[in-house]
Every structure is written in C-alpha cells, then in structure tokens.
Amino acid sequence: MIAITGANGNLGKATLFFLLKAANPSDLVAVVRDPSKMNELSSSGIQIRQGDYENVSSMEEAFDGCDTIMQVSSAVYGEQADRQEKNVVNAAVNSDVKRIVYVSTLNPGKEKLFRAAVTCGATENAIADAGLQYSFFRNSMYMETIPLFVSNALADGKIYYPAGEGRISYASRIDIAEALAGELLRKRSGNEMFHITGAEAAGFDTVAALLKSEKGLDGEYTNIPDDAFAEVLLDLGMSEEEINFYISMAQSIKANEFAGVHDDLEKLLGRKRKSLKEFIREL
Ligand SMILES: NC(=O)c1ccc[n+]([C@@H]2O[C@H](COP(=O)([O-])OP(=O)(O)OC[C@H]3O[C@@H](n4cnc5c(N)ncnc54)[C@H](OP(=O)(O)O)[C@@H]3O)[C@@H](O)[C@H]2O)c1
C-alpha cells in the first residue's frame, strides 16, 4: 500500500488523483490531520486515515501496512518544521515503511539561505541515515506560487519584491504531482535523487515582461530592500518567524538557489513540461 501525507493539500491531492488513474484505490492511503477535509474522496475507495506530524504514534498508525509513503514537507517554519519532519521519518522507521518518496527543495542543506532548505537537508539526511530506501524530489518553486509573489501584479502588472536579479526555474505543481505518482508506482530497487525544475530560469523582470506580453498588463519589476518587504509582511499580521522565513526565501532566490535547470522532470513525465509562458497565459 502507498500512503500520501498532506493528502488534502495542493500537491498531495493532485498526486492522489494521478494515482487513482493507475492504482487500485484500496491500495492507497490518504493521511490527513482532519479526515473531514477529504470528504470529496470519501467514496473513491481510498483509505482515509488521521495523522498529525506533531504526533508520532498517529503517523505510525496511519502508515500501518504501507510499504511506500510520499512525505510532503512541513507547512510550518523553523525548528517546528525540523521536528515535524523528523517525526514523520521516525514513524516510517517504526512502522512497515520500506521506501519514502520525499518532497524536498531544489538546494537543500544547512548552509543554504532558505530556511526550509535547512529543514529539507536535515530530513534527507535522516531518511538516508535510517536506511530507508528513498527517492528525493528536489523541487524548484511551483509556478502556482507566482500569484502569491506578485499578487498586486495580477491587477496592475507592477511587482515589488526583494529578489534582485535572482532567477527561478519554476515547475508546474501538476506536472510534479504526475511525476510523483509515477515514481510511487515504479518498482525501484535503489535510491534516486531528482532535480525537479522548469526548462528555463526566469527573473521577476521576465515574469513582468510575460505579464505584459501574455496578459496585456503594464508589467514592471522593482527590486525593494528586505526591510521594506518585512514591513509589508508585518502589516499582513505575520509573526517574526514567518517574516524571517519569507525574507530567507527572497534572499535565497536572489542568490540563485532556485535557478538550476535540469531535465529530470521531463524524463520522469516522458513528455515536455509546462512552460512559464503557458502558465502566465492561463492565469
Ligand atoms: N516549491 C514550492 O514552490 C513550494 C511552495 C509552497 C509550499 N511548498 C512545500 O511543499 C509542500 C506541499 O505544497 P502544497 O502546495 O501541497 O502545500 P499545502 O497545500 O499547504 O499542503 C500542505 C499539506 O500539509 C498538511 N499538513 C500541515 N501540517 C501538518 C501536520 N502537522 N500534520 C499533518 N499534515 C500537515 C496540510 O494539512 P492541513 O490542511 O491540515 O493543514 C496540507 O495537507 C508544503 O507543505 C511546503 O513544505 C513548496
């Protein structure tokens, strides 16, 4: 059986839909904090189990009888994220899990600027150290996050963000979900590490230019200081930890930690991946 954590989230749910096209539903387990969030799939035949990353025994019970799991990275910040992800690995070790397909980030490691990259690096190490078989999906940014970066730009085309000339090799979350489903169903004997990116890396000036050419907006990117960005986040009611997280993300982009371009996604899909231009045209 295959278990998907974060199964009601964007990536988890999309992966489940691809799995449902190819697998027997009774072989699939959706692990969620709140099973009522899976009501739309309650008659699909998949098993819906409760599990919270904060509670190791709930995750162990959720993984019961599952030999393969997809571990969706934590949705919180800092040390809480480190602890939650370690909990999921420990639960896998203590249950029937043999193989983890882990949703990581493009450049994980404790020396990276992006705070989530520190968490992902530690989790990759924990999985490898535990002797579990693994496939790591080192994902670049999802295209679907662009509206979050540039929310005002969708109205007037003006992007204000502190990423300098940093570029991002955006990949479509739907393409990633399809590739994850394929990987979960593949019989592998060894470990794999995939660098999941788009076919090109684009700066925010390119995103602004695409908003102009594809959407007819008066696209323009302005690089703002970190402090000004932090003030905007403070006005949105974010905690200091959240603000530090988002500043670390911008600094990471500026340092081109998300700029790498690799072919792994197309190889896994066996077709071309979605382009940034197509995505922005459809926004
Ligand atoms: N590469 C990128 O551009 C990018 C962008 C955004 C996020 N991410 C990372 O990729 C992951 C998946 O992305 P997504 O778009 O699918 O995010 P998402 O829609 O926010 O989904 C996150 C999932 O994790 C679950 N979750 C959160 N805390 C949990 C806990 N304590 N125990 C069990 N489940 C918990 C959520 O459940 P609830 O509904 O109960 O909260 C949700 O199902 C994110 O969690 C984040 O680490 C990457």
From TrEMBL:
NAD(P)-binding domain segment(s): 6-145
Record PANTHER family: NMRA-LIKE DOMAIN-CONTAINING PROTEIN, QUINONE OXIDOREDUCTASE 2
Organism: Terrimonas ginsenosidimutans
Top-level taxon in the UniProt lineage: Bacteria
Name of the molecule in the record: NAD(P)H-binding protein
